[in-house]
Write a structure and sequence with these properties.
Layout (H helix, E strand, L loop, with lengths): L2 E4 L3 E7 L24 E7 L1 H11 L5 E3 L1 E2 L4 H9 L8 E2 L6 E7 L5 E6 L11 H8 L4 E4 L4 H14 L3 E3 L10 H8 L4 E5 H11 L3 H5 L4 E5 L5 E4 L6 E3 L13 H15 L3 H16 L11 H12 L1 H11 L1
Parallel strand pairs: 1-4, 1-9, 2-7, 5-6, 9-10, 10-11, 11-12
Antiparallel strand pairs: 2-3, 7-8, 12-13, 13-14
């Protein structure tokens, strides 16, 4: 099963200020703020929702196709993804813009000042999915994640016009979208991904009830945080899957992307929805135990031991044949 994942490709530049931002602010001068902070460290991490999802799928051996736009500074990041089983042949490289970048400083009170540079991400709207499909011999599913909003709309319309099954996954972009855009992006989706808060926001912005949305998509996949995930289909009982026990909780960033990576990999293997969700929850647990979205490793024996403990021997036997 050939799965293309569209969405953002970015790097995060994270800095720590040992003091408090509040101590540097002068109440009657807030209209003319000019501040510079001497930070203790700089942590550069690979990110972007599409790249994060593809990284996880690559570790699971499902050879995902990354579709997005980056800058000429993408070479090192591309080599990293290639080395971890990701097909980067359909990444558009901008001639004039840098790869998207999030720059953030955190103070001693965990307050943050950050900026997001969209950069080359704005050129994702120029990517044709037909060209991607022609290159790899066809597409069985396209996951349309948070990206340049125009690119998300164009990819969705192209999937509809060409009859390519697609997954709608708005995540960070849902806050800036209006009801009309969300209705366009979700109608006819084979899968609709969101967390619980986003689920309510989708219903509020579209004016559609939960039942109406279920009638317009094949499957509604809602992540529930520590409670796992719920998969709903019109007229059928929901499937609920819990999370494996965590060994530690280091950093929640990228957990949702990891779930999607595991779930999509399960679909690529051809296992059932419950099993795919279990793989997603197991991979998400590995990420929450690691600082960074692509810093975790997947040791097969360790993965399967924990998967067996969480979901039983029958589930593990089915997954093991694909993971090996």
């Amino acid at each position: 099963m050939r799965i293309a994942v569209t969405g953002s490709i970015a790097t995060d530049h994270l800095m720590t200020f040992p003091g408090r931002f509040a101590d540097q602010l002068v109440a009657d001068q807030l209209h003319t703020v000019s501040l510079s902070f001497l930070v203790d460290n700089l942590d550069v991490r690979r990110g972007g929702v599409a790249a994060n999802i593809c990284f996880g799928m690559g570790l699971l051996g499902t050879e995902p196709i990354l579709v997005g736009a980056a800058g000429s500074d993408f070479d090192e990041y591309r080599a990293w993804l290639d080395r971890h089983g990701v097909d980067t042949g359909s990444v558009r490289i901008s001639e004039v813009l840098h790869t998207a970048r999030f720059v953030c400083t955190t103070d001693a009170d965990h307050n943050q000042i950050g900026s997001f540079y969209t950069g080359a991400m704005s050129e994702a709207r120029l990517i044709e999915l037909k060209a991607v499909g022609d290159r790899v011999g066809g597409l069985d599913l396209v996951s349309i994640g948070a990206d340049d909003p125009e690119a998300m709309l164009r990819h969705t319309e192209e999937c509809r016009s060409r009859g390519i099954p697609f997954a709608a996954d708005f995540s960070q972009q849902i806050a800036r979208m209006d009801g009309d855009e969300i209705r366009i992006l979700l109608e006819g989706a084979t899968y609709l991904f969101s967390n619980e808060y986003e689920k309510g926001l989708i219903e509020s912005k579209t004016g559609w009830t939960d039942e109406e949305i279920l009638s317009k998509v094949g499957h509604r996949v809602t992540t529930l945080g520590a409670r796992g995930v719920r998969i709903e289909r019109a007229g059928q009982e929901p499937i609920e899957v819990g999370c494996p026990e965590e060994e530690t909780k280091a950093d929640p960033t990228g957990v949702g992307d990891a779930f999607r990576a595991g779930f999509l990999s399960g679909l690529a293997w051809g296992v059932g929805l419950e099993r795919a969700a279990q793989v997603g929850c197991m991979l998400a647990t590995l990420v929450i135990e690691t600082v960074g979205t692509q810093e975790y490793t997947l040791r097969r024996a360790h993965f399967m031991d924990r998967f067996t403990k969480a979901y039983g021997h029958e589930a593990a036997a089915e997954v093991r044949t694909h993971l090996a």
